[in-house]
Specification:
378 residues; alpha/beta; TIM Barrel; 8-stranded parallel beta barrel; 12 helices
Length: 378
Amino acid sequence: MLQLGLYMAKGSKKHLLGPRLAGTALLFVLLVIGYMYIGYLFPSRYDRAEALALTVGATSSTSSIPVYTPPVLDKVAYDLKLWQIANATTSKPLMATTSATSTKKVLWPAKATYPNAGAILPFKRIVAYYGNLYSKRMGVLGEYPEAEMFRRLDIEIKKWELADPNTPVQPALDYIAVTAQGSAGADGNYRLRMPAKEIDKVLVMAKKKNAIVILEVQPGLSNLQREIKALEPYLKLPQVHLAIDPEFCMKNGRKPGDYIGSVDASEVNLAANYLAELVRANNLPPKVLVVHRFTQNMVTNAMAVKPLPEVQIVMDMDGWGMQARKLNTYREYIHNYPVQFTGFKLFYKNDYKEENSRIMTPKEVLKIKPQPVFIQYQ
């Protein structure tokens, strides 16, 4: 088009277009080119709006760019589930009818922060098999070959699904990754760290059942936080969670087994904050942190334990024996110290040790208030 205009401007006198007309044509061509160039640099309002819409993820009729919607916690469903757990019911809460003269303190649901989206609890109940692959005496995980172990776990899961069809079961393998020892060992810490190849075996096993993995820490005389940090490559994985066993967190240089150990709320909070950092740094769903307890001193200053949006904390009743004693232990050391969620441990052997004692059924456990959302079988 530019060439045509120049030709007309420079044409001979015999051309039908004279010099004046040729100049006008050239000016028109230049104006058209200028308008196109300005439109490129400064798009129209419509063009800018369309560009902005594509930038923020909207799609036009001709676009196939997917829209990313970040997950959001359903707080209404979350609160309803907490209320149902606290009252051992599946009904919806009624309007508050508390008398102005009532002095009864309501402990549950526990007052805790909302978790980030993707949290397991309370939407699912974790049912875990506990143990160590090196030992047939530490728990059902390790006592039986893999196929038999999973057959038994499947039976328990079905029992819980029948007892509470409104709460799906999340299978779990609860593996003692740091075991307390009766001997000091080379470093004098009375604990043994499991080699990576053993932990890897558990991860492979769990994947077959879409199970999560909980790594238990029994630090002996070692520093609890140091033992947890040693597991960091695994705790960075979305399906791996953590448990602390205060019974074997020894103080004052005493050996495991000589007396029952303890942790303070400050140690639990340190572990929770460490997990929260991993969650944020690796864009993970919330972690579950289980803390076992069956005596007053196993968790000192328990009411100072602080759940986080990135870390859900379960206080687990870890005692064995007669049903009445287990229920009393739960009431004294779990119910009376509301942190966030509760757990209940069932023993295939120890719960039968005393006369007329037996393992409790899911229906019996579900009568407890608040209902445990973490169940561990040993």
